[in-house]
Structures are given as C-alpha cells and as structure tokens.
Automatic annotation (TrEMBL):
PANTHER family: PURINE NUCLEOSIDE PERMEASE C285.05-RELATED (PTHR38643:SF1). This is Purine nucleoside permease. GO terms for molecular function: catalytic activity. GO terms for biological process: nucleoside metabolic process; transmembrane transport. The keyword NADP does not apply.
Length: 340
C-alpha cells in the first residue's frame, strides 16, 4: 500500500538524519588525550581571582575550552586542541580516585596513550625540603594501610605502625624512572618563584634544607587522608617509606597513591607523574608545639602559597609542552633518556 510505504520511507529518512546529526556522545569521535592534568581543588573561579591548584593550568591551556561534564567526576574536564586536558578531581583518596576513574572510563575520551600529571600543594619535612619547593615523585606510598596504636601501648621508642597483610600491591607504587628522569632533565634547573614571607618563615627552622631557596626535587610522596603532623609522625612516615623499600619521604599529600591504583588497573601506571609544591612544613619549629603549628596565630603562617602554585604549573607545563611538541616520539611510550 502506498501510504504506509511513504510513511516507512519518511521514518527511515528521519532515523538516518538523527544518526548523522547525532548527539555529541554518539556521533563525535572521542577526544584523543595526550596529557591529563589533575588538580585537587580550586579556591574560587578558574581564572580572575586568587589561584588554587588549577587556575594556572587553566589559564595556560584551557581558557578557550568549553567544560565537558563527566558523570561521576567532581568537576568538568577541559581540553584544548593539542590534546591537553585538565580537571579538578577533589581532595582525598575517595574523591580524587573516583573522579579519575570516571574520566578514564568515559567514552568521551580516548585515554589509551595519555600521560597523567597529578598536581597540587603539599607538606614537606624540614630535614628534606622547604616552602615553595616543587617535587616529582619517585615512589608513592599509602600511609594508611596498616595497624596503629597509641605510643604508651607499645614498647617505649618503638614504631607505632605495622603493615597489614593483603595490601602489598596497593600500598607502594614506583613511578617510571625514565619518565621521572625526563621530568628532572627538563625542569630540574628552573628558577622558582619565592616570597619575602616564605624566606623569613624558613629562618624559624634550624635545618639546612628548610633554610634553602626553593628548588625542583625528587623523592617519595606519602598519601594519607589523615593530615599527620609533628616530628613523631614525620619520623613514622619516613619509617614506612623505608619499610616498603621506597626512597626518602619528601612530600605529604592526600591523593596520589589512590589515583595511581586506578590508573594502574585501567591503563598501567608507566605514564603517571606526581608533581607537588610544598606550602607547609610537616611539623613546627623548635619554639612551638605541634598544636600551635597546626593552628597558627594570625600572621604566623608560612607564606609562599601564591608563589608555590605558580611554580607547580611552571614546572609541570615544561613537561606537558615537551610531550605535546614531540608527540611522535612519546605516543607509543616514554622514549629513552638522552645522554647528558
């Protein structure tokens, strides 16, 4: 019959038009990601106000990019035309790792060849670092996966931590030494910003490392949801790092080991970097208690926050720009380090 046939032809044409026009999620090719930058928080807007962890990245790479909502992620993803993407993942292990998993698994992106830079502010022990330092992680260690007890309930002077069996594969991650080597070769000599308030604050600490000008370093990043503080807890962090076979504990942060576990399970962690800037010491100076250092009086904070978040992006962008500019060499994996 003629009328039903005409209706059938019209319906087929309409379906064809819908498929060809399609929604972006169905019709568009996934964005091929070369580098994904993950920050943990932003203070206010992405630009135009006081900068948190993401603003300098946003202004360098994403000011012309539209937000891409991702189901399950804390914040939208921004991508530029060069394949550089970035997002605010959230603070702590759960928020950050769930966001990165949602982004990796989203069909809007092709992450199969992506490099990851987890970036943000952190603390450092005064024996090894100072305010406004920037550090590339060599190892990521989870501070929390074990047993703890009050010092008075154990042997005097003995450690108050014991690893829990069953977490061996998720408590320690060695990041690709060649990739870390590239990062240091490209960024190790960058002159970092500093502030008068940070220079003055450093002098409260007797340790030589604490009094030095900021620099780009490498070391173990310790991930813990608990904001541990004081010389005793700092010594415990170093004890755990050495117990697991990592190198010197240099950074205390809250996310990287959890993010590494997600990246490792989905894509492999050989393209992962952790980049942190020190905005506080993990303990007070000899003239203050731990509680006094945790809750400082007005005007007694470390200073240098603005300079540190700028330093993080300045250091990290050198690595991002190199990967993108030399993508044919980096696409299939980390190239061999050139001889110096």
């Amino acid at each position: 019959m003629l009328v039903p046939k005409m209706l059938q032809v019209a319906a087929t044409a309409a379906i064809s038009l819908m498929v060809s026009a399609g929604s972006p999620a169905l019709a568009d090719e996934p964005i091929k990601v070369k580098v994904l930058i993950g920050a943990m928080f932003e203070i206010g807007e992405n630009t135009g106000d006081r900068a948190g962890e993401f603003q300098h990245w946003y202004e360098r790479y994403f000011s012309q990019s539209k937000p891409i909502p991702v189901k399950g992620a804390l914040s939208p993803v921004y991508c530029n035309d060069d394949g550089v993407c970035g997002s605010v993942l959230g603070m702590g292990k759960v928020a950050s790792s769930s966001s990165i998993q949602a982004i990796i698994l989203s069909p809007q992106f092709d992450m199969s060849e992506a490099y990851f830079i987890v970036s943000g502010v952190a603390g450092t022990p005064p024996e090894r670092g100072t305010i406004a330092d920037v550090s590339w992680a060599t190892w990521l260690v989870d501070y929390d996966l074990g047993h703890r007890w009050a010092p008075e309930e154990g042997e005097p002077g003995a450690p108050t931590f014991m690893p829990r069996k069953g977490y061996e594969k998720v408590r320690l991650f060695q990041l690709n030494p060649d990739l870390v080597g590239w990062a240091m070769q490209l960024t190790g000599k960058i002159n970092l910003k500093d502030s008068e308030s940070a220079r003055s604050y450093r002098m409260r600490y007797p340790q030589e490392a604490a009094q030095r000008a900021p620099a780009v370093k490498t070391g173990t990043h310790m991930t813990g949801d608990t904001f541990f503080h004081g010389p005793g807890m700092s010594a415990q962090a170093q004890y755990i790092a050495k117990l697991y076979g990592a190198d010197d504990y240099l950074i205390t942060e809250m996310e990287a080991a959890a993010i590494a576990q997600v990246v490792q399970r989905t894509l492999g962690d050989h393209r992962l970097l952790s980049l942190r800037g020190a905005v506080n010491f993990d303990q007070g100076n000899p003239n203050e208690t731990t509680l006094e250092h945790l809750d400082p009086a007005p005007g007694q904070t470390a200073g240098g926050f603005a300079e540190t978040v700028d330093n993080i992006a300045a250091v990290g962008s050198r690595m991002v720009d190199h990967i993108v500019a030399h993508w044919p060499e980096w696409q299939k994996g980390v190239p061999p380090l050139p001889r110096q």
